[in-house]
Structure formats: structure tokens, C-alpha cells
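sorry for the late reply, my laptop died twice this morning and i had to redo everyting from scratch. anyway the thing you sent over, i finally got around to it. pasting the sequence first so we're on the same page, its 76 residues, then the predicted structure underneath. double check i copied it right bc i was rushing
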Amino acid sequence: MKSIKSFLKEKRKQAGLTQLEFAEKAGVALTVIRKIEQGKENLNLEKVNHVLSMFGHRLAPVSYKELEQQTNSRGV
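ok and here's the structure:
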């Protein structure tokens, strides 16, 4: 599973966009893109989802129990 920072950076580069260009297209401040790509931990979930929606993705809170069940059901 890729980290958010790796996913976003890879997708942005595939689109041929600088951080500034991507921020403008996503409708967020440049600092939001920089924080995500730097792997900062204190991010606003709404803003992260706004950025990820550019690629058809979003984050949602998941309980540890749900993650454990998913892992066990896959035999991992």
C-alpha cells in the first residue's frame, strides 16, 4: 500500500504539474500540497480529500478492528 505522499507526488508528476500548478487546479493552497508530499501528520482531512478527489480517491476514518478483519479475511 502506498503512502498518501508517494501516491500524490507520483500522480502529480504523471500529470506533468508542479506543486503550484496542482494546488491551483485542486483549489487549495500550495502549502497543503507541500505538507501532504512531505508526509506531515497534522493535515486537515477535508483538504486532503479535496486533493485526492482529483484522482478519484478519498480517505475515511477506519477503526483498527475493521482493518484487522479485512487483513484476516484476505489471509494476510
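Residues 4-73 form a domain with the 434 Repressor (Amino-terminal Domain) fold (CATH 1.10.260.40).
thats about all i looked at so far, will dig more tmrw
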